[in-house]
Each structure stands twice: as C-alpha cells, then as structure tokens.
Amino acid sequence: MSEETREIQVINDGTLPADRYIDRELSWLAFNQRVLELAEDETIPLLERANFLAIFASNLDEFFMVRVAGLKRRILTGLAVPTNVGRAPTDVLAEINHAAYELQRRHSRCFAEQVKPQLSEAGVHIVEWDTLDNADREVLTNYYQHHIYPVLMPLAVDPAHPFPYISGRALNLSIRVLNPTTDKIEFARLKVPQMIPRYVRVDRRETDDNVRFIPLEELIANQLDGLFPGMEVIDHHVFRVTRNEDVEIEEDETENLIQALEKELLRRRFGPPIRLEISDDMDAATLELLVREFDIDMEQVYTLPAPLDLSGLFALGGVRRPDLRYQPHIPVTHPMFRTNSPSDKPDTFSAIARREVLVHHPYESFATSVQAFIEQAATDPDVLAIKQTLYRTSGDSPIVASLIKAAEAGKQVLALVEVKARFDEEANITWARKLEQAGVHVVYGLVGLKTHCKLIQVIREESGQLAHYCHIGTGNYNPKTSRIYEDFGLFTSSPEIGRDVTKLFNVLSGYAIETDYNRLLVAPLQLRSGLLERIEREAEHARNGRKSKIRLKANSMVDEDIIDALYRASQAGVPIEIWVRGICSIRAGVPGLSETIRVRSVLGRYLEHSRIYAFDNDGDREIYIGSADLMHRNLDRRIEVLVALSEREHFARIDKFFEFAFSDDVSSWRMLPDGTWHRSVVSETGEPLPDLQDLVMVDRTRARRR
C-alpha cells in the first residue's frame, strides 16, 4: 500500500478523532523553536548560544530544501500530498511559511538584541565598517586586496548579459551602479566567496580575550568602487536563495545506481527556488527584478535585518574562550575495554567474549570501543572477514582506513555503502570508490530501499571454530559526529545474534528474502508489525490487570499506524513515556484519547540520536535499541535493525536514562495537551534544574571509577 493511500485511510478511520495528529512540518518548526530557545537562554554560555543560532539557521535551510520543496513540488505537479491533519495542502503550506517566517525574524532579533551585544560585552565583537578607524580600515583593505579581490566575479545584468544562475544558499550582493556616460542605472550581482571565512578578523594581533570580526559581505560591500571603476555605486543589498535540493532516483529504471545518482546530484544544483531572503534595506526595483527572475511569489520572500545566513556563526568556533563555552565533558572508556595503561590498546574480542557490552556515546569513548574494535579486527591474524554498513562517515575516517588495511592484508571485507544518504551522496561515492580500489567488496544495498542500519560483523577463527563478533548501533560510524551525537551500541559474541546478522548481510549483498530472525527486528518486513504486536500486547496486559508500560525514544514520531496503536494502548490504561527530539505528531495528555501518554524532549550540547523501544510485558521485559525512527520511510522504505538487549545491567542503564528524562527535577520540554511545548528550567523553589546530559556524564564517570 502506498504512503499516500495508507495515510488517507487512517484519516478516515472513525474510531479515533480526525484531529488526533499534529502536522509533521509544523511539529518540525516547533522543534527548531526549541533550538532557538537554547540560543535565547542566558544561562547557557555565550559562544554556545551563537552556535545554537547557527544550528537553527542550518536546520531551517535543510527544512526548506527538502520538506517545503517536496510539498510545493507535489502541489504544483498535482501529485497526491501526504498530510495527516486532514487539511488542504495549500493551507498547510501557507501556515508553514507564516510560522517559519515568524521564527526566522525571532531568530534575527535574538542575534541582534541579545547574543551580539552580550558577546561584545564579553570581548567578542562583530563590527560594521562604519565603526572602524582609519588604521583598522587600512589593515582590512590590505587583506581584501590580497585575499578576496582576486577571486571576486561581478556579473552584469543587461540585454547582453542575462540574469546569472544563482546557486543555493550562497550569499550575494545586488549592486546598482550609474553609468555616467549614458546616465543609465545598471544592475550587477556579486557572489560572496564561500571558501573564504565568513567572519574576518579585524586585527590579527588581537587576543581572543578582545577580538573583533567583520562579516565578509560587509568588507566586500565597502570596497565596491574598485570593482566598478568609472561607475558610480548607488547602493547594494544582500540576498540569498534556497533551492529544492532533494534527490529523487527511480532506481528500477536504471542499471547503474552511481551514474544515476551523479546525474541527479548535478540536477540538484539547478533546483527551483523555494525561499528568497533579502536584507530589509533592499529597494523596490531590485526586489521586483529578483522576484521576476526567480519566478517566486512574495509569500516566499523573507525580509530580514543583516546579516543574513546566521549559520555563518559556526565560524566563531575557532575563538579560544573556554569561559564562554560549556564545561568540557571528557568521554570515558567503558569499564569492559579499560586497559592498565593509556598507551595500551584494549583487547576488544576478549572483553566481548566475556559478556555483552553496551556503550553510550559520547559519554563513553567511540575511539576506545568501536574504533578500537575495527582496528583490532583489521590487524588480528585470526580474523577472516569483516562486514560493515556505512551510512555517513568521512573519507579520512580511521574506520575506512581500517577496512582498507584489512583488505590489503587479505581478509574478506564487505562494505555496504549507502550512497543515497542525503547531502552526503558525493562524499560517499568518493570514498566508496577508494574502498573498491583497495580490494574491499563494496555493495550499494537493495533497489528502492536505503540501508540505514548500523552493523559490524567480524568472523574470527578460535580453536578451530568460527566466532561471530557483532556491533549493532543507533548511530553512524563517524568518529567526528560520535563526539556530539548521543548514541548507544551493543557489542556481542552471541551465536544467536551472529546468525541473525549473517542472514541480514546475505540479504543486503546477495539474493535472499529473510524474515526468520531471533533477537533482531528488521524493516521493512518485520519491524512495523513487530512494534504493533508489542504495543497491542501491552494494551491487552492493561485490560487484564497485568503489569504494562511502554517507553519509546526516537528522533521523530510520525507514523499514523504506530500513533493510533499507542492511542488505543493509552485508552486501555497503559502508561506510555515518549522521548522525542524532533518531529512528534502524537498528542499527549488529551482526555479520552491519550491521558496516560507523556511526551518529553531534550536538547543540549549533544544531539539526542539513540532510538529505544521498551515494553514491560507483564514483567518479562523487552528493550530494543537500533537505527529506526517511527516514520514511514524507516518502517517501510529502509533496511533498519533493532536488537533486543538481554543483560539486567543494560536494562537498569536504560531505566535510569528514562528516569532522568521524565523527572520533574531535570530540565526538559514537555508536550501539553494542545500540542505546544513547555520548557522546565527551574524548580518550584526557583533553583535551576540540572541538565540531563550533565547528569549522564557524571553517571558514566562514576561508573568508570567503580
């Protein structure tokens, strides 16, 4: 059944109210508002608040490039538009545009009225050209002449020079100049170079205790006379366009996935405009020209104060001011992988053979667990084969280097590379080819399905027998993001899991249809039905007076079948705790519908990324971790894996994690029955509530000392 058909049928299901879902796009905007609230929070260190402003801007770009672009494309082409709120798609789009615009204006005010002046008070100044003295201007002009001017490319727009292609997300200056010979006003466009730092140091002799930056576009704008000699520069304005950058591939119509993807990536650069951001001083004639050339509606024009594109604030990450940042968290080594000396490498195989190991990043080190596991497998002479899925990583990753080293050592190495990982497609193609050149068997998954699961399997010969060592995780095998993404990973030498993972890799790399797994739930054939069965089982326990409870943690919750099952479980009396980072279409605490459902959201220095599915089952508990969110794409159009935990200690760790998140004495956002979110930051006595991520770090540090 198609996604659209199934959603329409759900809407028409008369057993539950028609307005039981929160629109996914509006829910996503509510998530980004929570990010913005962190930037507005004066208890958070200033450079971290600037970073949250940058995250908000980057998030919103992707939202327009993918979600708004996809919705608009379907409306314009007459395709069925999935909507789980029972309203006209055009009405939803108008509401999205209005809500996004209001948030972006609030975002600009936060920077201009709070973060920027407070940074200045702390000695980190973002300045304008008019505030500089002649000595500063001379230094910057010299920098401009040697480092910026040679790469600038002003483009005229006139009958001989058609309006140029404007790339998505790039900053541009619109410039009007007067030709004194003809007394005619001409228009030119100048792209702000993206390879030059967005914020330029005014004086490189300044210390980080008192440092000044000028936006790159501000510096360029005050040097325009030299770009148009003999002309009079009348005015200039800043603008920026966001384009449809989603990638769509009809895999059943092509024999070569890589070639089809490369072609689609080229098309992405020329996707239609979705949003036009302009500085609020832009004249009417320039705006009219841009609207006409981009062929967009005024509803898609966002008029904002300069500077545009606050994702540029990521550049302040190089300022060395620990007093303006979070107190550092130092990842600890999991006790099972501890060595006698820091210079010693852990024997991961011996540790995993003793018992299953649950690691929690970034509180517990990725380098001394996952990375050490792969590195040991690559050099261990008893290892015969390594199989791994790769969704997002980096070409210089030690993970990729270890796979290459293993292949060069003669081991059988299989890498399942998902080249369709959104916005990482080009990078994945590049390093996948490097793996192939080194002798790694590289496969690209199944037609029509993204491979999103996180799996490693190592086959090792021990005493004449083959042992299976596996890692199943909730996050990508990326050492860089492992330091800022919260994720769990299970290491195991269980023969049962080893057989399950072997079957799954055979499905992924060969021709097989497998549904017989023991400790795994695998999408798209098992996972949806497995979760629905377990939710209904809890409801049945509740109806019969037995122990029941459901605890879920996910990045997003959208799937209507799962949501409806949770509503019915709530009506049966099942206590339900849902911990979600982003989109959440379920309504919490609604009388007669979801009275027993509580929903929390936690945002902070780390991106909450793990997925957990826990069921009380009348005391015979089941807890799964894995890669799948509660979304149509994860349950129906991806290879996803959940693995069942088995150790009592692991159950206790998950319990404590949820207790932190749902405690009234820990800072978090809670969903109200009307679908809005309320943030708890202080206790009833007015004291600041502790941060969940700080509590988990303390807990892991104490565990290391035991």
From TrEMBL:
GO terms for cellular component: polyphosphate kinase complex. Its cofactor is Mg(2+). The active site is at H452 (phosphohistidine intermediate). It catalyses: [phosphate](n) + ATP = [phosphate](n+1) + ADP. InterPro entries: PLipase_D/transphosphatidylase, PP_kinase, PP_kinase_C_1, PP_kinase_middle, PP_kinase_middle_dom_sf, PPK_C_dom2, PPK_N_dom, PPK_N_dom_sf. CDD domains: PLDc_PaPPK1_C1_like, PLDc_PaPPK1_C2_like. Keywords: ATP-binding, Kinase, Magnesium, Metal-binding, Nucleotide-binding, Phosphoprotein, Transferase. An intermediate of this reaction is the autophosphorylated ppk in which a phosphate is covalently linked to a histidine residue through a N-P bond. ATP binds at N59, Y485, R581, H609. It is an enzyme of class 2 (transferase). SUPFAM superfamilies: Phospholipase D/nuclease, PHP14-like, PPK N-terminal domain-like. One of its GO terms (biological process) is polyphosphate biosynthetic process. Transmembrane segments: none annotated. Residues 604-634 form the PLD phosphodiesterase domain. Mg(2+) binds at R392, R422. Belongs to the polyphosphate kinase 1 (PPK1) family. Catalyzes the reversible transfer of the terminal phosphate of ATP to form a long-chain polyphosphate (polyP). This is Polyphosphate kinase. It comes from Leucobacter denitrificans.
